[in-house]
UniProtKB/TrEMBL annotation:
The chain crosses the membrane at residues 12-31, 84-104. This is Uncharacterized protein. Keywords: Membrane, Transmembrane, Transmembrane helix. The lineage of its organism: Bacteria, Pseudomonadati, Campylobacterota, Epsilonproteobacteria, Campylobacterales. It comes from Sulfurimonas crateris. The keyword Transmembrane helix applies.
Length: 113
């Protein structure tokens, strides 16, 4: 096993680096927030606004809306989002390090020549 690793060390490091970079960028673009609302979201917001106007504004002002999720759930979601961001950053950094290390050539000693 040790001989196989020594023989294919450069290929292993380049493959691992490339895979980690691809995973890092894929995660980054997957979890990045959407800048633009889709047409379906705009249509859903318009429908909700029309339904609220049909129901009347007097009933909605008298009732106090409860938060949809507790503070604990919000903190959990924020913690998970930060963990994914850190994992993405670490994946990209390790991928770049593996790729960089695979391209560094070590000087040959007299015994190897």
């Amino acid at each position: 096993m040790k001989e196989i690793f020594k023989k294919y060390k450069i290929i292993i490091f380049r493959t691992a680096g490339a895979v980690m970079l691809v995973v890092g960028f894929a995660l980054y673009f997957w979890i990045s927030p959407k800048e633009v609302a889709t047409q379906n979201e705009i249509a859903a917001a318009n429908v909700a606004r029309m339904e609220a106007s049909v129901r009347g504004s007097s009933s909605s002002t008298n009732q106090r809306q409860e938060p949809s999720s507790s503070k604990f759930v919000e903190e959990l979601k924020n913690a998970q989002k930060k963990q994914i961001q850190y994992m993405t950053i670490l994946s990209m950094v390790f991928g770049a390090v593996f790729l960089g290390y695979s391209f560094i050539s070590k000087p040959k000693s007299d015994s190897e020549i």
